[in-house]
Amino acid sequence: MTLRLNINQRKGLVGSTLLSLLILAIVGAYYLWGESYQARILYATFVNLLVVVGLQVFMGNAKITSFSHSAFMGIAAYVAAICVTPAAMKAISLPDAPWGLNAFELSPLVSVLLALSITGILGLLTGLFMARLTGVGVTIVSIAILVIVHSIFLHRTDIFKGNQAFFGIPKIFDLPHITILAIAAIFIARLFRESAFGLQLRACADDEIGARAMGVDVYRTRLIAWVIGTLFFATAGIAYAFFLGTISARPFYFNFVFLTVAMLILGGLRSVSGAVIGTLLITIGLEVVRWLETGPDLGIIKMPQMLGLSGLLLGVVIVAVMTFLPNGIMGNREIEEIFKKDPG
Amino acid sequence: MLQIESLKVFHGLIEAVHGIDIKISKGQCVCLLGPNGAGKTSTLSSITGTARATGSVRLDGNDIMALSIEERCKRGIAISPEGRRIFSNLSIQDNMIMGGAIRRDKTRLAQEIEEWISHFPVLGERRNQPAGTLSGGEQQMLAIVRALLSKPRILLLDEPSLGLAPQITARVFEIIRDLKKQEMTILLVEQNVAAAMEVSDYVYVLNNGAISSHGDVGKFGDGSDLMDELMGVHR
């Protein structure tokens, strides 16, 4: 890839900078006024942001729904965790692991590279047939991938420990790391959207035959976007494992898929700014709902306990947005175009 | 330049075109006339590769029937499809960039886009807006410009006057006349007989999937007999 940026990419730099300033403002506010428990919320938000922005790369540009992202996230998280956790710790947590998986340890950098390459290769292999499928075919196969990977996590307990915690992962990342990753993700996704590949992918979403008649290799374009997407999910998975210190199969399944897809749909899947805004809004919404769930005392009235409200909220958001705002909040617009009317 | 021989086009099990021959020389504007359902668009689809067909389509002597849609575009075939089919969610400028997707000389492409925009200021004023917001006539201009930006050797125009107001139709045919002056090879599909005959060198009349008559444009006089034939009027 040449370093020369096209006109749209230069506009993209402006938009990405604005989004990054928003992220930095949030982090800055936390360091000035935040309480320490909020660091975890912020970290989780930015992990979600990595995933949602990664979803935008394939699902948003190609306009093909896929649900396998948390599987790729899980694969990277487990690979990184198995590589980086000290052998002494693994002797306790994975006593029955085959192939000497519990008898070695690698540096964080090597672990990250290994996790990224393994997930990237799996992304490439799945992409080889995903890119040939169209529309609903991709969606169904992506669900199958999610289910397959999850059942491997659940049932190979000697390696993955299933629903029990895989513990002892050193805490390598903290808020500054994930902030940098989130900002990098925003820039990369936006530059991809405005690149020749991104444009071709968006053209295919409008009229696939038309784009092919213009000489676009739809298959190659989709494959590239799919693999780049999986690398975003892999990064998110690694960041998740490196902060929490404990992982299990459960978080890498439907609930998480549902959450991140809702974020993308709310913000508007055609735009990177939409992905970021959707993530932030749903996170804020969920925090408020969690507080309401506990039945807080509002001074005048004492609210009742309402457990399960957060799941309800996500469902309502998806239904409401699909009905009243099918293009999400941002539609075709990016943040630097926010004052432009969106006719789309 | 383009030679079509015993071409049959199929839509599923139905044979829409029953073995036709068409020849287009370099710099010629050939017109394919016919009523609805005659097989005009099917013929174009078999040239661009979007419809299943048998027979031969040769571009400069090379059979292109086995090539993919993308490869045919790279060989120099561009189409302004029926009903425009611009990328409605992409901006006008991005539609033009897509037109030149196969080109390597991106700087030159950018210059050409500017030239076209100075030609059609309305496209320039709204270059960053979604192309779906353009009027029908503007979309037609955009579709033609988009096709031309791939630097085609032959341009296929599928009913460019469809659904346009008379003044705008006149404008579209003005563009076709300009292209002819620049020696662009054109295959024009039309139902607007009078306007099409004015810009064409050679005419093929397609009826029920077969060519019922063809010849130099002079052979058909002012086209009124042809009009009657296409409309099914018998005098």
What does this structure look like?
The complex is a heterodimer of chains A (344) and B (235). With 344 residues, chain A is mainly alpha-helical. Chain A has one domain. Chain A has helices at residues 7-33, 37-62, 69-84, 87-93, 108-130, 136-155, 157-160, 175-194, 196-206, 208-213, 218-244, 254-267, 272-293, 309-324. The longest helix of chain A is centred in the N-terminal third of the chain and has 27 residues, at 7-33. The model of chain A has no long low-confidence stretch (mean pLDDT 88). Chain B is globular. Chain B has one domain: P-loop containing nucleotide triphosphate hydrolases (Rossmann fold). Chain B is α/β, with parallel strands linked by helices.
Would you kindly provide a brief summary of this structure?
The complex is a heterodimer of chains A (344) and B (235). Chain A is an all-alpha fold. Chain A has 14 helices and no strands.
List keywords for this structure.
heterodimer; A: about 350 residues; mainly alpha; 14 helices; B: about 240 residues; alpha/beta; Rossmann fold; six-stranded mixed beta sheet; four-stranded antiparallel beta sheet; 9 helices; 10 strands; globular
The greatest interface between two protein chains, and residues involved on each side, is:
A-B, 23 and 29 residues
Nearest-angstrom radius of gyration of chain B?
A: 17 Å
The Cα radius of gyration of chain A reads: 20 Å
Q: Helix share of residues of chain A?
A: 55-70%
Distance between the termini of chain B: 38 Å
Counting structural domains of chain B, the number is 1
pLDDT averaged residue by residue of chain A: 88
| Strand portion of chain A | under 5%
Query: Based on the structure, what is the oligomeric state of the protein chains?
Result: heterodimer
Identify the overall geometry of chain A.
globular
Largest sheet of chain B: 6 strands, mixed
Q: Give a count of the beta strands of chain A, DSSP E runs of length 2 or more.
A: 0
Report mean pLDDT of chain B, rounded to a whole number: 89
H/E topology pattern of chain A: HHHHHHHHHHHHHH
Structural class of chain B: alpha/beta
Number of helices of chain A: 14
